Amino acid sequence: MSTATAISGTTYSERIPATMHAAVYRGVNDVRVETVPVPQIGAGEILIKVASCGICGTDLKKIHNGSHSAPRIFGHETAGTIVATGADVSNFSVGERVMVFHHIPCRKCYYCRKQTFAQCATYKKVGVGAGFEPSGGGFAGYVRVMDWIIRDGGVVRIPDGVPFEQAAFVEPVNTCLKGVKMLNLQPDETVLVIGQGPIGILLASLALRTGATVLTSDLYPERHAIAATFGLSNPIDARTEDVAARAREATEGRGADAVFVAVGVDALIKTAMDAVRPGGKVLLFAQTQHGEAIFDPGAVCMDEKALLGSYSAAVDIQEEGAQLVFDGYRNGFDLTKLISHRFPLKQAVEAIDVASKPTASSMKIMIEPEA
């Protein structure tokens, strides 16, 4: 084993190298593939060898907007194999295949009691990292998982037969399921999902499971074609059609009962508010950076249109979300179909560039260290 990680009480499954490659954030729009030390683990912690990590839009916003200090290693949609366990770890063993949540709430504070887990102070602490300030760390060869993440349910075993790529979707599916549950959709309702990137398709697919009629809008026919493989059969071509008008046409002039905004473009908030019926709900899912956006306050007050937000995952639906992903691999919810690009870790900068400039042919971008 490597002397870099040879800590008393640690159990290893293989020889751990002293160093690894990682995509290190050094400043705004500055990510570099560097050689860094493999993180050491202590008592109650585990070391995971990363097999697959998805690039999330939130990672990209942090890289491009400079909202976080440097240096850091991002990446939080992580699946891999446990290669080392620290002293006092009894519920996990080396060799197990797992995915990991980088946030886990305390479950005791005021926000947790109100099931607003993403606002919990403990939840806002990141418990997974690959060096520097813990920031997910999945854009690296190995990640260290801290004790409270393990103790409080943040590490999830991957069943046999489910590939790492599918398991890496457990965290984003949880976030989408949380948003869908917030709207309490009914079978007689019509839902519009604006944007059919990977997150938009996940939101629309989960909304479809409620029995509601689901409309989807996007600029790219290629994305609608992928959405169709998930049973989404009411596409709106946002290049040539009036999205709000189409929503009204589909609902006897009322407008959609609920609208998801799955694109981080604030101008689309107005489109969503125009498309939703009086008394309906608009949920912002992609507006994950603070700033200013304008909407019609009369639409909220007089038309009683509700403007809501949903951010990050929810621990109370963790088992349900994971089971959706794991069972779905064989039962019509194969999320690997959303993957358009796979990059080895040494090409992580290129992967981030592709993910940052979405095109008709780009969907989910994965970084896979051993690809």
Question: What can you see in these coordinates?
Answer:
There is one protein chain. The protein has 371 residues and is of the alpha/beta class. The chain folds into two domains: 11-163 and 329-367, Quinone Oxidoreductase, Chain A, domain 1 (Alpha-Beta Complex), CATH 3.90.180.10; 174-309, NAD(P)-binding Rossmann-like Domain (Rossmann fold, 3-Layer(aba) Sandwich). Helices cover 27% and strands 25% of the residues. The chain has 13 helices and 17 strands. It has helices at residues 57-65, 110-113, 121-124, 147-151, 164-167, 170-182, 198-208, 221-228, 243-249, 267-275, 297-301, 318-328, 348-356, and strands at residues 11-12, 19-27, 30-37, 46-54, 77-85, 97-100, 128-129, 142-145, 155-157, 190-194, 213-218, 235-237, 256-261, 276-284, 306-309, 339-343, 364-367. The strands form three sheets. Strands 1, 4, 5, 6, 7, 8, 9, 16 and 17 form a nine-stranded mixed β-sheet that branches. A six-stranded parallel β-sheet has the order 12-11-10-13-14-15, sandwiched between helices. Helix 6 packs across helix 7, helix 6 (170-182) crosses helix 12 (318-328) and helix 9 packs parallel to helix 10.
